[in-house]
């Protein structure tokens, strides 16, 4: 197969959802259809359960699972499909945001009973920032959910995207009869089926009495009314508009019953994008360029604390990645090579000799990678669009074992390189402020500092509600602001100044009073 053929058969995407909507279940069913696993139950949820806050062994176990399921690859209809897993737990949202920088599209799972939930909104915001194409799967139709038209309205208003149903349910809950495909004009009849992947699909002309025979008079009438309304209200589905991230096709089904999953997968295979071009600080790079480039979007610590090596996840963006070849690490300006890069299958890893755009390879790393690092065949550039987001909880890291301060420094440096949290330094006294999106990370950091680096710490909560990166065209004004704000200024890992605002009100005041200074909520700005 030529390189171009290899590229065009790759589909790299993530499944996202609010916890419990059915992401793990849907992932598993897709793998079953793809033949990557043989039995249900083979995919472990990477969910970090609430109780894990105080149960560190549980966190460690869960971390293990999430390495194994970080990327799941399977073949279907001659396509090579890479599913990038994202942690469901809210406290690990940053990890999810970063994974979304490495995919070409997403499938969003919605629980038909709960509708659009908090995490759904935030995840979609990140997708919308990047115009990532989205397919929506409304799940759990075997339960009494909200009216489907209301669900569609809610999706449009809360997620700020147009929707277009491609299938339509006949009832829900105990009376759920199946879904009608608005495009194939077929009816998929529902039956409880937790293990098999076959479906009971019938071509049907809904304007004939066959429909009455199949679903009864009342439901036949309703389906005709609904489809008429849909065709009247929604524009016909247009693939280009979907690829631009402007309209999301919607499917209905029940993942746990394998129901509606095949339609979803088949449509995904037909419409979802091939590996797309990506921006660097110098130029746009196209996947079919001959020279290899890629970037690191995730770093995972080795589970064995005696070996401090880590796994860096590299998304290949152009060219062919080859095992054992030297590549240029552009941030460090040095050449590196990897003797045992690996790919991921459902529950195993295997060494790969080459990888193509769209693929993700795991690289053993001894501490030379940070999130966002770029590898090339010599060209000086860095992939952009992998920002840090302003954290929400801030605590000062206090060393409680002065004999181990070197270990503490090294540990916190490496853990923040991994992206577990963000580290800010205050010039006065070299104080270290750690910012995260969730409380759980502080427990994880404290635990890992002790067990992997032999350092002890405690936390003091900081009265900070938002950290904003600062820039200005007027350097004098910026220096003046930094001098005046004194203790409210810290520096990120790349020594960029950051304003630590005590409250939203204080932030707004400062923004108003200093129009020549720009306040940024993500670390990527020009
Ligand atoms: P995740 O947190 O999004 O990964 O959700 P899971 O896949 O773990 O599913 C959460 C719960 O919903 C589990 O108990 C599933 O068995 C259940 N579930 C998933 N799909 C369906 C469905 O179609 N119908 C019903 N009734 N339950 C489902």
UniProtKB/TrEMBL annotation:
The lineage of its organism: Bacteria, Pseudomonadati, Bacteroidota, Cytophagia, Cytophagales. It comes from the Bacteria. Residues 8-276 form the Tr-type G domain. InterPro entries: EF-G-like_DII (IPR053905), EFG_III/V (IPR035647), G_TR_CS (IPR031157), P-loop_NTPase (IPR027417), PrfC (IPR004548), RF3_C (IPR032090), RF3_dom_3_sf (IPR038467), RF3_GTP-bd (IPR041732). Keywords: Cytoplasm, GTP-binding, Nucleotide-binding, Protein biosynthesis. The keyword Hydrolase does not apply. The gene is prfC. GTP binds at residues 17-24, 85-89, 139-142. It is found in: Cytoplasm. This is Peptide chain release factor 3. One of its GO terms (biological process) is regulation of translational termination. Belongs to the TRAFAC class translation factor GTPase superfamily. Classic translation factor GTPase family. PrfC subfamily. GO terms for cellular component: cytosol.
């Amino acid at each position: 197969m030529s390189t171009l053929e290899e590229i065009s058969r790759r589909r790299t995407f993530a499944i996202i959802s609010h916890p419990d909507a059915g992401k793990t279940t849907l992932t598993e069913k897709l793998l079953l259809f793809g033949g990557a696993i043989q039995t249900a139950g083979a995919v472990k949820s990477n969910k970090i359960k609430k109780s894990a806050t105080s149960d560190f062994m549980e966190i460690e176990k869960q971390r293990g699972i999430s390495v194994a399921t970080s990327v799941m690859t399977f073949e279907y209809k001659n396509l090579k499909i890479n599913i990038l897993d994202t942690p469901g737990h809210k406290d690990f949202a940053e990890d999810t945001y970063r994974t979304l920088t490495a995919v070409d599209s997403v499938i969003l799972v919605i629980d038909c009973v709960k509708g659009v939930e908090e995490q759904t909104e935030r995840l979609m915001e990140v997708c919308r920032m990047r115009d990532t194409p989205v397919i929506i799967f409304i799940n759990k139709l075997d339960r009494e959910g909200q009216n489907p038209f209301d669900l569609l309205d809610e999706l449009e208003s809360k997620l700020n995207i147009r929707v277009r149903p491609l299938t339509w349910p006949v009832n829900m809950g105990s009376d759920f009869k199946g879904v009608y495909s608005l495009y194939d004009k077929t009816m998929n009849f529902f039956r409880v089926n937790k293990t098999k992947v076959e479906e009971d699909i019938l071509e049907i002309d809904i304007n004939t009495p066959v429909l009455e025979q199949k679903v009864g008079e009342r439901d036949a009438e309703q389906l005709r009314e609904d489809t008429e309304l849909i065709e009247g209200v929604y524009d016909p589905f247009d693939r280009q508009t979907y690829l631009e991230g402007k309209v999301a096709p919607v499917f209905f089904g029940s993942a746990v019953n394998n129901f509606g999953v095949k339609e979803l997968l088949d449509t995904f295979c037909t419409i979802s994008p091939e590996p797309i071009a990506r921006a660097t600080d110098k130029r746009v790079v196209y996947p079919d360029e001959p020279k290899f480039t890629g970037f690191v979007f995730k770093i995972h610590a080795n589970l064995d604390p005696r070996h401090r090596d880590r796994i860096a996840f590299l998304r290949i963006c152009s060219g062919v990645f080859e095992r054992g070849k030297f590549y240029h690490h552009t941030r460090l300006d040095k050449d590196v090579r990897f003797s045992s890069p690996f790919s991921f299958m459902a529950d195993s890893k295997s060494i790969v000799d080459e990888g193509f755009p769209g693929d993700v390879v795991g690289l053993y790393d001894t501490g030379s990678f940070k999130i966002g690092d770029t590898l090339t065949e010599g060209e000086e550039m860095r992939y952009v669009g992998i920002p840090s987001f302003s954290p929400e909880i801030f605590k000062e890291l206090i060393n409680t074992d002065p004999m181990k301060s070197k270990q503490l420094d090294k540990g916190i440096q490496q853990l923040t390189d991994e992206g577990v949290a963000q580290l800010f330094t205050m010039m006065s006294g070299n104080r270290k402020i750690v910012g995260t999106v969730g409380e759980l990370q502080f427990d994880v950091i404290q635990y890992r500092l002790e067990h992997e680096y032999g350092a002890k710490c405690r936390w003091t909560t900081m009265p900070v509600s938002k950290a904003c990166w600062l820039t200005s065209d007027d350097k004098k004004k910026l220096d003046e602001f930094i001098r005046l704000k004194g203790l409210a200024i810290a520096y990120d890992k790349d020594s960029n100044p950051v304003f630590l605002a005590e409250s939203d009100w204080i932030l707004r005041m400062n923004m108003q009073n200093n129009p020549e200074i720009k306040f940024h909520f993500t670390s990527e700005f020009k």
